[in-house]
C-alpha cells in the first residue's frame, strides 16, 4: 500500500503564495487573527493525524469491510479509535460557528483537512464527512431549539449525520420520492419510507446518528415543489439533550460494493419514526441544496485525493522499478537496467497524475475561499459574486475532478504494470474507491446538464462570463510577460473559444433542446480543461516570479513551471477534439430507433 505523505509544500504554496490566505482571512468577519503561523500549525497537525492514524487503516479497512448483524453495523478494526482521536483533537469543530460550539475558523481550512483525510483513507473520512453537510444545513435552516439539541453535538463530534435522499425507485429524480411525513399531536412528524445508498447511515463510532431526510407532507403538491426536509435521529432525544429510547429507524442491510468497502452504505427504513421539520413546508429541496452543494465539493475533493494518492504510489514505484534501458542510452549504467521513470510514456502518466492532482487542488481551494466569503464575508455584493462563482464552478469541480481523478488512478495501476493489478500494492484499491465519485452526488451527466442547461443557458451566459472575465483579465495583465507567453496565449485563445462554442450550442438548442443533452458532458470536460489551465497559468506565474527573485526552493518552483508546460502542451489540447464532438450535434445520438440498439 502506498505510504501517504501529506503534500505540505504544495498546500502552503497555494494557501500563501497563490491565494494569499492570510489577506483573504482578514476580509472575513472575526478572522483577522487567522495568520500564517496558525494556518501552518493546523496543516501540520492535520497532516500528522492523517499520516499516522488514518493511512495505516486504509488497506486493512478495505480488506475487513463493515460487518452487519440484524441491523447493527460494525466498522473495521481501528476505525472507532481513530474517530475518538479525531474528536479529541477538536477537528469536527474546526470550521463551525463559535456560537454553536465550533472554533469559527474559515471553511477553507476545513477543506484542506478534508483533502488530507480523503487521500489517507477515504472510507474513514466519509463518516465525519457526511456530518459537515448536516451541520451546514442546520446552521442555515434549523431553529434555535434544533441547533441546541442537534447541531452542537454534531459540531463536537459526539454524534454524526447523514443525508437521506435516494429511494429504491428514484435516484436523481427526487420529484417522485414516496417517503411520507404525517403530523403528530406534539408538533413532530411520523416519517415512513425507505432510503438507499445512505453513507454512514448506521455504524458503531457514535451513540446517535442524525438523519436529514426528504419526505412529503400529506397535502404536498406533486413533484419537487412538494418535498419537505426533516431531522430524524437514530435515538430519540430528551429536552435536556440526553438520549432517550431508540427511534423507529433501522438499517435493513448494507451494500456490497466495488470500493469504499470500509464505509457503511446502508438501506435505511423509517417506520413512523419521529422527525422534526427543517425550514418551511414543501421547501425541503431548496434547504437540502445547502447539504448537496457541500457534499458535491466534498466529492470533488475525492477526485483530487485519488490523483494525489495514486501519484505518490506510482512515483515511488517508478523511481525504484528497473526495466530496460532508456532509448537514448543507459541513464543508470551501474544498475542492471534503468528505473522506469526514464521512459517517456511513464513520464506521461506521472505528469498527468501530477497535473490533475495539483491543478484540481488549486480549483478546490479557490472554491473554498469563495465559500468563506459566502458564509463569513462582510460585503453583500462580494457574497453575491462568490455565490454566483460557486454556482458555476461547483458542477465543474465535482464532475471534472472526479473524472480526471479516476483517470489518474488508472494511470497509477498502469505504471505498476502487472503489479498494479495485485491487491497488496494498493493501487487497484484507489481505482475501486474512486469509481463511485463520478456517480454519487449527481453523476457526471447530471452535473453536465446542471452546468450547461441551468448555470450557462438559463443565465444567458451570465455565470460563464463572470469566470471568463477573470481569465481575460489575467491574460491581459500578463500578455507582455515573456516568461508566461507560452501559457497566456493559448489560455486567451481557449477562453475566447469558450464563449463562441457556448453561443453555437445555444443557437442549436433554440431549434432542438436535445442539443443541450448531446453536448453537455463534452462541454463540461471542455470547461474543466480550460478552468484548470487558468489555475496552472496562475501557478506558473507565481513560480516564475519566485525563480526570478532567487528566493530558494528552486526545485519546487521549477517543477511547477514544467508541470504547467506539460499541461498546456499535452492536456489542454484535448479541448480541440471536444469542440468537434460538441459541434457534431444531436443526430448521431438520437437517430437510431430504440429497437435497433440490439439484435440477438
Layout of strands and helices, then pairs:
Layout: H1 8-18, H2 21-26, H3 36-54, H4 58-64, E1 67-69, E2 72-74, H5 79-88, H6 107-141, H7 144-156, E3 160-164, E4 180-183, E5 189-199, E6 209-215, E7 228-233, E8 235-237, E9 243-246, E10 249-254, E11 265-278, H8 284-320, H9 344-376, H10 380-416, H11 427-435, H12 444-457, H13 462-477, H14 485-511, H15 514-549, H16 554-571, H17 574-583, H18 587-590
Parallel strand pairs: 3-6
Antiparallel strand pairs: 1-2, 4-5, 5-11, 6-7, 7-11, 8-9, 10-11
Helix pairs in contact: 1-3, 1-9, 3-6, 6-7, 6-8, 6-9, 8-9, 8-10, 8-11, 9-10, 9-15, 9-16, 10-11, 10-12, 10-13, 10-15, 12-15, 13-14, 14-15, 14-17, 15-16, 15-17
Short description:
The chain is α+β, with helices and mostly antiparallel strands. The protein has 18 helices and 11 strands. Among the domains are: 8-152, Acyl-CoA dehydrogenase/oxidase, N-terminal domain (Butyryl-Coa Dehydrogenase, subunit A, domain 1, Orthogonal Bundle); 159-282, Butyryl-CoA Dehydrogenase, subunit A, domain 2 (Beta Barrel), CATH 2.40.110; 460-589.
Care to describe what's here?
Helices cover 57% and strands 11% of the residues. With 600 residues, it is of the alpha+beta class. Among the domains are: 145 residues, Butyryl-Coa Dehydrogenase, subunit A, domain 1 (Orthogonal Bundle), CATH 1.10.540; 124 residues, Beta Barrel (Butyryl-CoA Dehydrogenase, subunit A, domain 2), CATH 2.40.110; 130 residues. The strands form three sheets. Strands 3, 4, 5, 6, 7, 10 and 11 form a seven-stranded mixed β-sheet that branches. A two-stranded antiparallel ribbon has the order 1-2. A two-stranded antiparallel sheet has the order 8-9. A hairpin with a 2-residue loop joins strand 1 and strand 2. The longest helix has 37 residues. The chain is globular.
